[in-house]
Design a protein that fits this description.
Structural class: alpha+beta
Strand order of the largest sheet: 1-2-3
Radius of gyration: 26 Å
Strand content: 15-25%
Low-confidence stretches: none
Mean pLDDT: 81
Shape: rod-shaped
Order of helices and strands: HHEEE
Number of strands: 3
Length: about 110
């Protein structure tokens, strides 16, 4: 169930009014179902577009700094964030590379 409509009055509803209300409720239910389906489809397409943007950013960038900058830009625009942090372990799992972005300023700092 998505919603409920409540009606009241001082007199009982006549059979003809009840019949019309039932017919109207079926029409409204179908319309709401279509609207919800299109909304879900729109959300799904947005997620696919974002995934495509990430893949394009990763495949077209030449170094990790460029990848981080592009991906952070997409995340910032998509989620309206003020701070994004990416922590990457080195191959030896000892060194962590840290990227932070706060309003267009990308900061890279190696950590031990």
């Amino acid at each position: 169930m998505i919603g409920t409509v409540a009606l009241w009055g001082t007199d009982e509803f006549r059979p003809q009014e009840i019949k019309r209300l039932r017919a109207l409720s079926r029409q409204v239910a179908h319309s709401v179902e279509v609207i919800v389906t299109f909304d879900e489809l729109t959300s799904h397409l947005r997620r696919l577009a974002m995934l495509n943007d990430f893949a394009l950013a990763v495949s077209s960038a030449q170094n990790l700094d460029q990848i981080a900058r592009k991906v952070f830009g997409y995340l910032e625009r998509s989620f309206h964030t003020e701070l994004i942090v990416l922590l990457l372990p080195s191959i030896e799992s000892k060194l962590i590379r840290e990227f932070r972005i706060r309003t267009e300023n990308l900061i890279y700092s190696p950590r031990h």
